[in-house]
C-alpha cells in the first residue's frame, strides 16, 4: 500500500485543525484546542489505489523543538494561510524557506488560502496566492472549511499525487545513476584490458 506522510502548517488560527477534521470526518468543528498537536491515520482510495495517510496537524502557536524532526519525517506539506490575515500569508513564505533548508530540496507543498466565506474581509487576493504557489511549484486552492466542498478532499489527494510523482522520479534517478556506475566500471575494465595492464 502507498504511504504518504503529510504535515499541515501555518499561523495560529488559520484553520489547520478545522481543515484536517473536515477532510477526515466531512464535518466542520467550530472550536478546536489550539495547543493540540495530533497525528491522524487514515486509509483512503486515490486514483483506484489504496493509500495510507499519516497527517500531522501542528499547533501554529508553539515554538517547537520537534519541528525539525517532523519536517524530516514528512513526504509533503499543506501550507495554510487565511485570506483575511496578511501576516499568515507572509508566514507561509517563511515556512516554505525553512522547509527547503531542512530538507535541502524544493519541498513538495500544496498551498491553501482558507476562509473564503469571509470575502468582505479579504486581505490577500487570489492572484497573490496563485503567484506564490507558482514560485513554490505547489498546487493552489482557496477553501472555506466552514462551508466545505469537494476541494478540501482535493487538497489532500493532490498532495499525495505530487508526492508519489516525486518518489517515482527519485527511484528512476537512482536507477539511472547505478546503471551509469556499472557502465563506468565496465569501461575501466575494458580500457585496462585494451592497454594490456
Ligand atoms: N469563517 C471561517 N472560519 C473558519 C474557517 N476555518 C476555520 N475557521 C475558524 O477559525 C478558528 C481557528 O480554526 P482552527 O482550526 O483551530 O485553526 P488552527 O490553524 O488549527 O489554529 P492553531 O491550532 O491555533 O494553530 C476557529 O474558530 C474556526 O472555527 C473557515 O473556512 N471560515
UniProtKB/TrEMBL annotation:
For this UniProt record, the keywords arranged alphabetically read as follows: Hydrolase
Annotated Gene3D superfamilies: P-loop containing nucleotide triphosphate hydrolases
Checking SUPFAM superfamilies in the record gives: P-loop containing nucleoside triphosphate hydrolases
EC id: 3.6.5.2
Q: Does the keyword Ribonucleoprotein apply?
A: no
GO molecular function per UniProt: G protein activity; GTP binding
Query: Among its keywords, does the record have Hydrolase?
Result: yes
The chemistry this enzyme catalyses reads:
GTP + H2O = GDP + phosphate + H(+)
Which PANTHER family does this one have?
A: RAS-LIKE FAMILY MEMBER 11
Family membership: Belongs to the small GTPase superfamily. Ras family.
What this protein is called in its record is: small monomeric GTPase
Task: Name its species.
Answer: Lottia gigantea (Giant owl limpet)
The uppermost taxa in this organism's lineage are: Eukaryota, Metazoa, Spiralia, Lophotrochozoa, Mollusca
Amino acid at each position: 500500500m502507498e504511504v504518504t506522510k503529510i504535515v499541515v502548517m501555518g499561523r495560529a488560527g488559520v484553520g489547520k485543525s478545522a481543515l484536517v477534521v473536515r477532510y477526515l470526518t466531512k464535518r466542520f468543528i467550530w472550536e478546536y484546542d489550539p495547543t493540540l498537536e495530533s497525528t491522524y491515520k487514515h486509509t483512503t482510495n486515490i486514483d483506484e489505489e489504496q493509500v495510507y495517510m499519516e497527517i500531522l496537524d501542528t499547533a501554529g502557536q508553539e515554538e517547537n523543538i520537534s519541528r525539525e524532526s517532523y519536517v524530516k519525517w514528512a513526504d509533503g506539506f499543506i501550507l495554510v494561510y487565511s485570506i483575511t490575515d496578511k501576516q499568515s500569508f507572509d508566514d507561509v513564505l517563511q515556512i516554505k524557506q525553512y522547509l527547503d533548508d531542512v530538507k535541502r530540496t524544493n519541498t513538495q507543498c500544496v498551498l491553501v488560502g482558507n476562509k473564503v466565506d469571509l470575502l468582505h474581509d479579504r486581505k490577500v487576493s487570489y492572484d497573490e496566492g496563485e503567484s506564490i504557489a507558482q514560485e513554490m511549484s505547489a498546487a493552489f486552492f482557496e477553501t472555506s472549511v466552514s462551508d466545505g466542498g469537494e476541494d478540501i478532499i482535493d487538497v489532500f489527494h493532490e498532495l499525495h499525487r505530487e508526492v508519489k510523482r516525486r518518489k517515482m522520479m527519485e527511484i528512476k534517478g537512482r536507477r539511472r545513476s547505478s546503471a551509469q556506475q556499472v557502465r563506468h566500471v565496465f569501461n575501466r575494465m575494458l580500457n585496462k584490458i585494451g592497454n594490456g595492464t
